[in-house]
Design goal:
Elements (H helix, E strand, L loop, with lengths): L3 E4 L7 H12 L4 E3 L6 E3 L5 H11 L9 E3 L10 E2 L2 H10 L4 E7 L2 H6 L5 E5 L4 H10 L3 E5 L13 H8 L5 E4 L9 E4 L6 E4 L10
Helix pairs in contact: 1-5
């Protein structure tokens, strides 16, 4: 059965549609959704089969994934990552925003993602749709960009083209309008010496 294409307006997300997406996630569904950077592919972090499906779609082995978590805010971050005081102050300053912070993972993360990685990426996007989803869900969702890592492809910006490409691989595609084609700025923050390891949409001068 093909995925459902759901139109949600970022300015005032329809609560009924947000609940529909959350029910899909709770049932092990995989969704594609807009963020403040590019469109993302994700699922509930607590559903291991869904995480494996995301890895298959992405074309990576689950154990070697570089998935990040989308959080509503920083209130429950200690459940998933260890954050130093300096890093926390910086995160409070720039989030919500187009940054991914790579932090030391707590013991919860390897179990959730079936990975041997010791770090986890944390995102709090400046976009109402994914934040409303995780707030309603009650925990983060896995996120990974659907943009090709080697070249910018048209599917990363137009939700209808994204739907055509992924309609038989995911359960819901959220049309939140055209997406961007620049990823988040990635900050290595597993010590209190912060290092920008990929320049993206986020202004790195706010970090350093």
């Amino acid at each position: 059965m093909p995925a459902e294409l759901i139109k949600i307006y970022p300015e005032n997300p329809d609560e009924r549609k947000i609940r529909q997406v959350v029910e899909c996630l709770r049932g092990g569904g995989v969704i594609i959704y807009p963020t403040d950077t590019v469109y993302g592919l994700g699922c509930d972090i607590y559903n291991s089969r869904a995480v494996e499906k995301v890895a298959r779609i992405k074309g990576v082995k689950p154990q070697k994934n570089n998935f990040s978590f989308i959080c509503y805010d920083l209130s429950h971050i200690a459940d998933y990552a260890r954050v130093g005081n300096v890093t926390f102050k910086v995160m409070k300053k720039v989030l919500p925003g187009p940054f991914t912070f790579i932090l030391d993972a707590t013991n919860n993360v390897p179990k959730l993602l079936n990975t041997n990685k010791k770090t986890v990426g944390i995102r709090v996007p400046d976009h109402s749709i994914p934040r409303c989803i995780v707030k309603e869900l009650g925990n983060p969702i896995v996120t990974t960009s659907i943009k090709d890592d080697d070249e910018i492809i048209e599917y990363s910006t137009d939700p209808e083209l994204i739907y055509e490409k992924f309609m038989h691989q995911v359960d819901i595609v959220i049309d939140g309008g055209y997406g961007g084609n620049i990823g988040s700025t990635i900050v290595m923050a597993n010590t209190d010496h912060l290092e920008v390891i990929r320049e993206g949409l986020g202004d790195s001068s706010l970090i350093l």
